[in-house]
Fold:
Amino acid sequence: MGKLLLVARREYLAYVTAWGFWLGLLFTPLILALAMGLPLLIEKTQPARYYTVLETGTTFSDHLTEYLNDRRAREIERLLSPVSGLSEDADASERLKEFRSLRAQGTALEAAVLQVAPELVPAIPAHDFVEVPPPAQSIDDLMAYLTGEKLVSGPLGARELYAVFIVGNDQIEYWSDDVVSTDFSRMGMRVSEQMALRNMFDAEGFDERLIAETRANALEIELRSPSAQSETGQIAFSDQAPFFMAIGLSFLLWLLIFSVVNYLLTGTIEERSNKIFDALLTSVSLPQLLTGKLLGVLFLSLTLVSVWACSSLIFSLALQDALPPEISQALAEALNPRLLAPAVVSFFLGYLMYGAMFLALGSLCDTIQEAQSLLSPVFIVMMIPLLMIPVAISNPGSPLLEGLAWFPLLTPFLLILQVPNDPPVWQVLVQILWMGLFTTGVLWAATRVYRAGAVHGAGLTEARGWMMGLIGRKKAASAHGSEAGDR
Structure:
């Protein structure tokens, strides 16, 4: 045991004393935060784009302006919804109904928010598109504005003209220098459909204002669940927290395994190429060396998790007064042992499984280039759970997803995602047992491959020959058994 711990200590110190480890420790959370928040930040910081409409009258222009305002109002309705967890009143549904009623009466968005929920005024979405008077009356003259050769004046200063709608009797033309995004053109299509619907109502003598009034008076659907914590069964953010935490834990597990097993791979290749194995094996046995390497990098991953967990705890304690009660309750529910226990077991077994595979592959390679040819299938398999994370939450009952959870290489990740849906206890235990058995088999096979590569110097060619020889011996034994049976 003492020699095993010495090997683990050597591996741990070799990585933890390197600058790259601490830089990764610091920058990984920042990069993840940017990766998750950057798309939203880009969307929020997108400057408003100018558009203009060429038509006889202002019918299409007015309807498009109304549509854009309704689009912003729907964002406020989402924030007013009780399920969002951002509303501190018990009467969130009443406030949402009042907001819709004010909008149906023609109250401006800002005024309606100020009257119903003043605290949400800073959250009112900015205008994505702003209409400006047409600087010219023909598309030929507007080309210079669309291409940016000329700027058009508007309430936000002089800017390039983003789009032009030309409304005719039998069609609407949409002109824009942006040939990729079709979001704004689809908005124009929806407006055209609404205009056609309203024209039909007018022809039938139906007052279209009744539609808005009817919508404002519609019964609000309250989301309830028998598994909700509330006595009334109403779904709150704290009920959804375990699902979000499962996504986070599954992604964290994937990130840790994907990161730390690369240490095992590169370290093994370096030791093989520098003939360090010979010196190490004069002091320790092969099982001790293999186990010590796995333990050393495991301690390294636990260091990563500990630092990130402590930083998150300090950050939460510093902001505990600013956090809404719903967030605190959600965190308490998310840290439920029912969710954490399978996550911890999945991490250890998943790490041992992939770590042993990477050690075995690294022991057969003299260079990183050789390893890449072997690792490509492993990396492809590891990308599957990453792609499955959002799908598993939106389609928890998929038979295909349940079947994939029994595939041992995917079980560590998909098992965590299934726990919030309360699968049978026997199913979780059997999946963990099956994953443990498979991990044991991987460790046994990795030991044999590691002995051949690290101790005896076998490479990819020898390993391929060994596998072909093994297959040949099995075929020969099978044929010999068949001949004996015929006799």
Notes: The chain has 18 helices and four strands. The first strand starts at residue 49 and ends at 54.
